[in-house]
Design brief:
globular; single chain; alpha+beta
């Protein structure tokens, strides 16, 4: 039977998606280390397939404030990458380049947001480049779009920008050690169902 929703995926499909998440996260961590010129270690990320409506709870709650960095995936497959970052990540990243007092996300200035957006661009490029090499697909990403808002609003805006998205997404809970500091960040990979089928086809995985 053809797969029409993510709920129909079998355990071996999820294993493939988990491995893609592991490889992509490793490449993104390497790119981040190069950008920050410091050691970045990443634990094996916790990767789950969840209903989009449940993601907010995994990111700290609907009313929590965060920074969302979204990038459209184009080329042979279509979708979106969404980074959701909290204060500790922003503080560590920005202070790598210049001193800044980032106690809350309200302290983020325009220049700070540019640094954060560039981080999203670099790590997302590393992620999709790893995916492209793995599958042989041509994959591109758009320039990053950033916002500082509640997690609920960040997720709602992303969903509105991708109406064809399945209501389930691949949530990647990354635990990083940056310069000795433990930091969590969330990455959401959203692919249209047809793109997911293309992905499996190029990996030789039946669906």
């Amino acid at each position: 039977m053809a797969i029409e929703t993510l709920r129909q995926l079998q355990p071996y499909h999820l294993d493939v998606l988990t491995e893609i998440g592991n490889i992509g996260s490793g490449n993104a961590a390497t790119a981040l280390a190069s950008m920050m010129n410091t050691t970045v270690e990443i634990a094996i990320p916790n990767i789950t397939l969840v209903d989009y409506e449940e993601v907010a709870a995994l990111l700290g709650g609907s009313d929590a404030t965060a920074i969302g960095i979204s990038l459209d995936i184009t080329g042979d497959i279509s979708g979106m990458i969404l980074h959701v970052l909290h204060t500790d990540f922003a503080d560590k990243l920005i202070n790598t380049f210049y001193p800044a007092q980032i106690s809350t996300l309200n302290d983020i200035q325009e220049m700070d947001m540019s640094v954060i957006s560039e981080m999203g661009n670099i790590t997302s490029a590393a992620y999709v480049n790893a995916l492209a090499k793995l599958t042989g697909l041509f994959i591109n990403i758009s320039p990053p779009d950033s916002q500082r808002d509640t997690i609920r609003q960040i997720l709602d805006d992303s969903a509105a920008a991708m109406p064809e998205m399945s209501r389930q997404v691949l949530f990647i809970d990354e635990k990083l050690i940056i310069g000795g500091s433990k930091i969590n960040c969330g990455l959401i990979l959203m692919l249209e169902m047809e793109s997911l089928k293309i992905l499996f086809d190029h990996l030789g995985v039946s669906y």
